[in-house]
Amino acid sequence: MQLSPLQLGAHLQRGLKSLYTLHGDEPLLQQEALDAIRAAARAQGHSERNAYTVAGAHFDWSEVLSSGASLSLFADKTLLEIRIPSGKPGKDGSTALQQIAEQAQGNDSTVTVVLLPRLDKATKSSAWFAALESAGVSLEIQPVERNALPQWIAQRLAQQGLRVAAGEEGQRSLQFFADRVEGNLLAAHQEIQKLALLFPASAAAPVVLDLAQIESAVLNVARYDVFKLSEAVLSGQSARVERMLDGLQAEGEAEVLVHYALAEDIRALKRVKDAIAAGRPLPMALREQRIWGARERLFERVLPRLSNSALADLLQSAHLVDGIVKGLRQSDWPTSGWQALHRLANQLCVLCAPGSKAAAPR
After folding, report:
1. Cα dihedral value 2, 3, 9, 12, nearest 10
2. Fewest CB within 10 angstroms: 41, 81, 147, 160, which?
């Protein structure tokens, strides 16, 4: 059975299952789901907890298997947690996990939780993962995307008896908060907890926070993903792109990796444009270039406004910036690799912005 994290609370109220699989790359939400399962297990008498972390190819699964198969000597019921940080249990682990899934059937004495990172399509199709899913409950922990982050913050503030002002000021407050914590949900949670301490709510009414209070209290703890930069550029979000580039530079990200992400988008746009000109349907051209998901929708929106001359100029700019980040000088371009990356990203961002015209960047 597959559930979303939002459905977990209601599910646990109806009854506890003997096997749970949590997979995803959002630590806060995975930890909260685990805490909810732990609390439900304790309430039903699972007072002993055994935890194992699978590390290395020679991990000994025998103790894990015996822990899940037998009753504890010191308590009636056990909570068994198995962490696999790599998401790759190996041959022995695959066999063991399938055995654990089989043991879970009708076993009321042990609740087993398997904790995994984000899994690729091949891993989700593996025999061991299919066995875990079919024998128990599976929760995929998805990150909170940037466009959903203000609403997530508002909901978490409400849980602390806090809210932002109504109307435009409140929306600005939430957007400011989201800008400060993007890509770092654990830090966002900590900042909300801090606000609850600074502005304690009463039982009578929630505390209304204004923009000044949030600006003065919330630290800049955003963490940026170089591949999320691609989505921001293709969406034409110039201010966000500038923040992301500054954040990536401050975090010590390699200039060549950032350049690769930008240049690969430009090359893919050109290849898809050429394929369409050669008579390929757009969906086929996108699949051939392995463009799907959010990037597929962005490509569909921006391709009609990108002229061949604009793409040619972008390709030339990407070529020049490739040399700059590797230490070469180019006339009429900044000598700093990061400044050159800002300029290249801005060229593409301006063309992709809603309402822009298909003109070559200058």
Report:
1. -10
2. 147
Q: What are phi and psi of 212, to 5 degrees?
A: -65, -40
Residue 137 has what DSSP assignment? E
Q: What is the pLDDT of residues 72-109, one digit of tens each?
A: 455 568 899 999 999 999 899 999 999 999 988 877 88
Which residues are 201's β-sheet partners?
Answer: none
State the CB neighbour count (10 A cutoff) for residue 354: 10
Architecture of domain 226-352: Up-down Bundle (1.20)
Q: Which fold has domain 146-217?
A: Helicase, Ruva Protein; domain 3 (1.10.8)
Q: Torsions phi, psi of 240, nearest 5?
A: -65, -40
Region class of 24: left (phi > 0), else alpha (psi between -120 and 50), else beta: left
Q: Which of 198, 194, 174 is nearest to 186 (CA)?
A: 194
Residue 258 carries which side chain, given as an amino acid letter? V
Which pLDDT value is given to residue 67?
76
Q: What is the separation, in whole angstroms, between the first and last Cα of the chain?
A: 54
How much of the chain exceeds pLDDT 90, in percent? 69
pLDDT at 215 over 70: yes
> In angstroms, how far is CA 93 from the centroid of its own chain?
26
Phi, psi of 51, rounded to the nearest 5 degrees: -125, 135
CA angle at 186 for the pair 294 and 238, rounded to the nearest 5°: 40
Q: For residue 219, which amino acid is it?
A: L
CATH number given to 2-141: 3.40.50.300
Q: What are phi and psi of 130, to 5 degrees?
A: -60, -35
Q: For the segment 156-205, what is each residue's pLDDT rounded down to a tens digit?
A: 999 999 999 989 999 999 999 999 999 899 999 999 999 999 998 877 77
Asked, colleague to colleague, whether 2-141 and 146-217 share their fold, the answer is no
